[in-house]
């Protein structure tokens, strides 16, 4: 057991932070905000290019695929820093969902074709999983792919396609055998967004981020766009879900919100008293501090288990539940501490913490039901972690 | 006899108002009014409410009101809360309660009649930049110069100031004998020296920073013609408005539960309605319990106040509990609706926003718990 | 709507309190404590006799059965006062579970035979429901009764028979048709404890109160001891459960604990500070005060609904869950407020509140799973109250 | 490298101690020792623990200990907590940490060696009637008279005082220069002027009120031969003991979860194991999360202290969280076991008692949250 970052890890953390301090400019952030419902702009593209030039999109990949073979712990440190510094979001779908699936299940041709452009951030992916009638019960999905000569012909509809409008490709779960039991007729394929027959419709969300419905109308892709074996997609898909949970379980942003909130309370006088001196506020902050520490340790635990080659499905679920519910709690408590000021959003000059708490409050539900609802996560902890019987 | 069920009259009030609001106030309307290009207010709805007598439910008949009780008004608030009636209703009623508590007969006749008739929108200007709940820290002051009062200062989070015909402004004042206290001024929106800037809130309700630069007011603008003595009446009206808001919150929370029950009963996953999962059922049972508790506390507070009894603790209990309940209900509703409730198309977020906004107004949970602690 | 007790109700409350003040003596309490695992002593018998002479065992019964026909609200007031004043426990099983079942389902002969001795407190009942393998799933009970001529012959075992050792009779659920679906082969009968073949074995509990296992070995009772119709016992039994929930949902004792705790905090200095002046204690107490008020209102609501003839199954379940979980919370918070003193039990002279909080802490679980676990209660609120679909 | 898994050596420590404790400490033994006619202590268990080296895991080799780390000791505490090893282990180890922090070489040689060898039971006398956590309010004082110290006062909640060969007593003292401070005295149980009375606790652990009436002590009984300077060493040892107790608590909580998983997997109702109900699964998932969190916090605290680093916040976080976790786990276990866990036959209550007792010792949640608040 060892509860410190090593010197090398501390240096890495510092390197990431220095890099981010340099590349995050007000202009970049303004552009990102401006484009948040559209395509990425030149500054954001340049920001991502710099990351890709460092090799950081593939930092955790094996060397044989051109990765830096850094540890899961290093990858966690990177992600936490990105969140903590409020850097523009870096999609993990290509490098951490699609790529590991390719390592494990892809053919040599699959790997040759798709890994380099992911590594270089030329290809961006959206997760084509959920459908109107298949959310939590993902295995019931109905979007179909039928082989016609050398091409798959895809028909159907996906929802909650959060990066659809700024991705080059879909990482798509389709039904390839409608007669098989539901988990055994699913395949994974990659579909270019510019293929004829793909239509995108914006869905607006409470959290203010854009998501999309994607319609597939006789969309044709080469046979080789199938990843792994036909009808074995469920295994690929569920393996990738663990990774998504670890990412959704990140608490870097929440930690930053908390620190900013403490700072605010230390220099703000309301009703004749410094906020930090109010006992009820102090106790709430102390309570949050403890839970943030738990969230942080859950993150490090998951990373160290990955590095040791252990199964993390229960731990990833636990981490995801804890961090996402804490996200609600920090923003909820925080807004209460801000009292009437908690109402102001980022467009108001007087909004404390630039309105970040109310934004996080609205984003929190997305994290709680996304990546598998927290109810399903608790089932996983109980069944896989504790070995309780299924119904 | 102790009885937590509506009387026949109350039941009728509830049924009529629910029917009216469900017909007149759709989520679509609520959304539209919240858009920046709208004022947040609907004149046609306002007129209909005035015609049916609901802007004066509690206003004495002699001032053209319906002469009902605060409980009747509470029922209206609960039903209004269900459908998210625009906040001009609440801010104007709050002002009316303050006028009723402090005003002279003349003032009541003028202003309450206008409110009952739907001819006046109002709100109360209380909080300041560094003084949200403690008037001792107010910097807005009124100085007496001959027979005029000169009002100077800045108020924040003033509900519907942009629409108000008259605002009621709470200021510190000092009279000739050096006696200091609070005074409530009726300040016409158009008075010279009044300027305002809208604040941006996530709830899309309309609140403003209102600045008073040497605004000149005569005695007719002093509520009750009494200066330095507004504390008590202010406490009464604020307690009433807080208790009423609790019922607005209860109405909203109950509506969210109703919608969620419907959703989880219809939405199927794994071949069954998701409402048949035990985890879903227990979430909803907890939500219903929190809201039933809030409702009883809120009606208790309103009912005691309606009889003119002190109910400081009862109001504090109601607000401390209802704030947490309404918010938690919306948080859990999002959990149960998943993506379907998160897209704005579903309208669920309208209640989520209002839940959080009401939690933060009239004092958070901690403020009310502290009041209770002081009375232990 | 009306949130006051009437003058008459206030007078009734005062009458009960005055009565209890007079009859509760230190000697009585000492005797009760001494005998708590055995039979009742003379003082306790006398205490109950006084209550029965007032007609209070049957205060809520219809006049035709010799009752005072007082309202459910009056009955609630009575029970809350008894709990609040710490009076020796008055079993409600005979007067409020058996008797109402007789009113509703009993034959004329049933009523004539059993109601008078219940009214006069000559007969005391224990609830013969749970069995080793039938707890939450009560309908699976296996204790059998077979008609042999004019007598039922009973064989089986009951557990959690909390008043078995001081009751004259069992209110017994038995299986009379093993071939019928499980809810349709159950009957209710009354079995004297002194019938040959009845054996009692003490079970000790964490809460310190005695419960029992009861064994029935060819126990014979007259045919007429069957209550209501044969094989229709499930309806009788579940109807009676609502009453039990309202009783278990009483918060009178918890209210008293809270008030005593506040008093204690007002006159105790620890570490140089009066406890009531510590902000974290004040906030905890305020939080409890709010929830106690909710519990109180839930009680009044249930009573007023009963008086109006309304179905209370969902409301009774809600009340039971809320009050019993609050019992844990008040004792748990209370013990934390008492800090190291929270450890002392009633045998220690220095124990604050005579060790009442730790006792309540240990009793609380019993209330949470007894009378139908709180999980089942939540199912009831969801299904009967909100109309959610069953699985 | 940051790593939350045991090393091979640690894993062996854990496996060996779990096997030992499961063999030697049955619930039956725990119950028996708690009966009033027993002392709460088992000499034969004590001897075995000494022989295997566990009373001196952390004691330097030169004092006949095993020279292990605080983490090794933590592993032992976690495993001891699983089976509810009698509290003499914890109180004696606490005393050893204090001796280690404050004692002279001579004192360490004498007392640590005796502790490692199983020849000394001890405990720390700290709290007083009106001073549970603030030594400024201590009334127990030591006056210097010539080269003797005269100790007077009363301590409460002293763990295992009735068995202790020597107690360590924390008293206020004043030296010849008028300098005031805290001093830790080694007070033999048999010293003249020492009297005690057992307290009655629901946890059935043994704590006493210990009275000191003009107890005469010479300099060899002053830990470290230094007076008025015990604060720092006391803080170190108390932090260590608190962190270790968190691991005892984690061990107990994990055992309760294991037992509960087994129970709900075997217990059938409605034709299925009750562990297949979603409500039951979610309760257990929450319990496991709380305990995993506690375990990480506790090992973090012990690990930092083990390296001699400051870990005030880490210890406070661990205790604030573990107290709530262990208790809640036992409360929910009762809920899941129902009547079966409530009869004393099931033994479950033994853990419930210990959970509450440990929650209350070394400071409740609020005390630790306040420490954290002060360091924000």
Notes on the protein architecture:
The complex is a heterotetramer, with two copies of chain A (391 residues) and two copies of chain B (376 residues). Chain A is α+β, with helices and mostly antiparallel strands and 391 residues long. Chain A folds into three domains: 7-90, Butyryl-Coa Dehydrogenase, subunit A, domain 1, CATH 1.10.540.10; 125-231, Butyryl-CoA Dehydrogenase, subunit A, domain 2 (Beta Barrel), CATH 2.40.110; 249-385, Butyryl-CoA Dehydrogenase, subunit A, domain 3. Helix content of chain A is 48%, strand content 15%. In chain A, strands 1-4-5-8 form a four-stranded mixed beta sheet. The longest helix of chain A has 29 residues, at 279-307. Chain A is globular. In chain B, strands 1, 2, 3, 4, 5, 6 and 7 form a seven-stranded mixed beta sheet that branches. A two-stranded antiparallel sheet of chain B has the order 8-9. Chain B contains twelve helices and nine strands. Chain B has three domains: 8-120, Acyl-CoA dehydrogenase/oxidase, N-terminal domain (Butyryl-Coa Dehydrogenase, subunit A, domain 1), CATH 1.10.540; 124-228, Beta Barrel (Butyryl-CoA Dehydrogenase, subunit A, domain 2); 232-375, Up-down Bundle (Butyryl-CoA Dehydrogenase, subunit A, domain 3). In chain B, strand 8 (268-269) and strand 9 form a beta hairpin. Chain B has helices at residues 8-24, 27-34, 43-52, 70-83, 88-102, 105-116, 231-266, 278-306, 312-337, 339-342, 348-360, 365-374, and strands at 122-125, 141-145, 148-159, 166-174, 180-188, 194-198, 207-217, 268-269, 272-273. By secondary structure, chain B is α+β, with helices and mostly antiparallel strands. In chain B, helix 1 (8-24) runs parallel beside helix 4 (70-83), helix 7 packs antiparallel against helix 8 and helix 9 (312-337) packs antiparallel against helix 12. The model of chain B has no long low-confidence stretch (mean pLDDT 95). Classes of the chains: A alpha+beta (391), B alpha+beta (376).
């Amino acid at each position: 057991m060892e509860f410190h970052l090593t010197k090398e890890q501390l240096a890495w953390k510092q390197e990431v932070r220095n890099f981010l301090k340099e590349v995050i400019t007000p202009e970049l952030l303004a552009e990102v905000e401006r484009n948040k419902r559209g395509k990425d702009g030149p500054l954001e593209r340049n920001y991502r290019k710099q990351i890709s030039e460092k090799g950081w999109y593939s930092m955790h990949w094996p060397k044989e695929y051109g990765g830096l073979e850094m540890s899961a712990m290093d990858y966690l440190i990177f992600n936490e820093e990105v969140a903590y510094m409020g850097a523009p979001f870096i999609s993990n779908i290509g490098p951490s969902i699609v790529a590991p699936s390719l390592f494990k299940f892809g053919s040599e041709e699959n790997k040759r074709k798709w890994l380099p452009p992911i590594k270089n951030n030329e290809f961006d992916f959206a997760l084509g999983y959920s459908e109107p009638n298949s959310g939590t019960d993902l295995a019931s999905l109905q979007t179909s792919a039928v082989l016609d000569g050398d091409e798959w012909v895809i028909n159907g509809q996906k929802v909650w396609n959060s990066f659809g409008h700024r991705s080059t490709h879909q990482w798509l779960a389709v039904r390839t055998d409608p007669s098989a039991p539901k988990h055994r007729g699913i395949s994974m394929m990659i579909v270019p967004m510019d293929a004829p027959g793909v239509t995108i419709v914006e869905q607006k969300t409470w959290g203010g981020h854009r998501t999309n419905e994607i319609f597939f109308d006789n969309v044709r892709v080469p046979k080789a766009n199938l990843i792994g074996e036909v009808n074995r997609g469920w295994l690929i898909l569920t393996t990738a879900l663990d990774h998504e949970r670890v990412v959704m379980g990140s608490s870097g942003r929440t930690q930053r919100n908390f620190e900013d909130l403490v700072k605010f309370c230390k220099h703000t006088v309301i009703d004749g008293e410094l906020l930090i001196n109010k006992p009820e506020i102090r106790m709430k902050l102390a309570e949050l501090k403890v839970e943030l520490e738990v969230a942080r340790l859950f993150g490090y635990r998951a990373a160290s288990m990955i590095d040791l080659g252990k199964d993390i499905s229960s731990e990833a679920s636990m981490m995801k539940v804890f961090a996402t519910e804490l996200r609600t709690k920090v923003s909820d408590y925080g807004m209460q501490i801000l009292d009437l000021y908690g109402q102001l959003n980022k467009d108001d000059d007087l909004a404390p913490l630039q309105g970040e708490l109310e934004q996080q409050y609205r984003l929190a539900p997305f994290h709680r039901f996304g990546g598998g609802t927290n109810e399903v996560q608790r089932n996983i902890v109980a069944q896989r972690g504790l070995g309780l019987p299924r119904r | 006899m102790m009885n937590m069920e509506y009387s026949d009259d109350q039941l009728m009030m509830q049924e009529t108002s629910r029917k009216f609001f469900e017909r007149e106030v759709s989520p679509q309307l609520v959304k539209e009014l919240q858009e920046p290009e709208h004022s947040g207010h609907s004149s046609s709805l306002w007129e209909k409410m005035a015609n049916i007598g609901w802007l004066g439910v509690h206003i004495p008949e002699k001032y053209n009101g319906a002469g009902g009780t605060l409980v009747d008004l509470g029922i209206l608030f609960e039903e209004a809360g269900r459908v998210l009636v625009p906040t001009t209703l609440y801010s104007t009623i709050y002002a009316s309660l303050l006028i009723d508590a402090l005003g002279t007969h003349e003032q009541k006749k003028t202003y309450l009649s206008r409110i009952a008739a739907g001819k006046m929108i109002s709100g109360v200007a209380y909080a300041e930049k560094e003084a949200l709940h403690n008037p001792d820290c107010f910097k807005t002051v009124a100085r007496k110069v001959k027979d005029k009062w000169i009002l100077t200062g800045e108020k924040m989070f003033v509900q519907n100031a942009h629409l108000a015909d008259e605002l009621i402004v709470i200021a510190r004042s000092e009279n000739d004998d050096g006696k200091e206290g609070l005074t409530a001024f009726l300040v016409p929106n158009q008075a010279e020296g009044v300027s305002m800037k809208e604040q941006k809130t996530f709830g899309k309700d309309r609140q403003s920073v209102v600045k008073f630069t040497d605004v000149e007011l005569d005695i007719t603008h002093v509520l009750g013609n009494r200066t330095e003595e507004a504390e008590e009446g202010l406490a009464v009206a604020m307690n009433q408005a807080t208790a009423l808001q609790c019922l607005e919150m209860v109405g909203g929370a109950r509506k969210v539960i109703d919608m969620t029950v419907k959703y989880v009963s219809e939405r199927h996953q794994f071949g069954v309605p998701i409402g048949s999962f035990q985890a879903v059922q227990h979430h909803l049972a907890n939500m219903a319990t929190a809201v039933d508790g809030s409702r009883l506390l809120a009606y208790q507070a309103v009912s005691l106040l309606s009889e003119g009894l002190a109910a400081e603790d009862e109001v504090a209990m109601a607000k401390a509990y209802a704030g947490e309940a309404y918010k938690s209900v919306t948080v859990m509703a999002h959990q149960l609706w998943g993506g379907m409730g998160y897209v704005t198309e579903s309208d669920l977020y309208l209640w989520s926003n209002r839940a959080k906004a009401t939690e933060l107004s009239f004092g958070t949970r901690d403020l009310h718990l502290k009041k209770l602690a002081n009375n232990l």
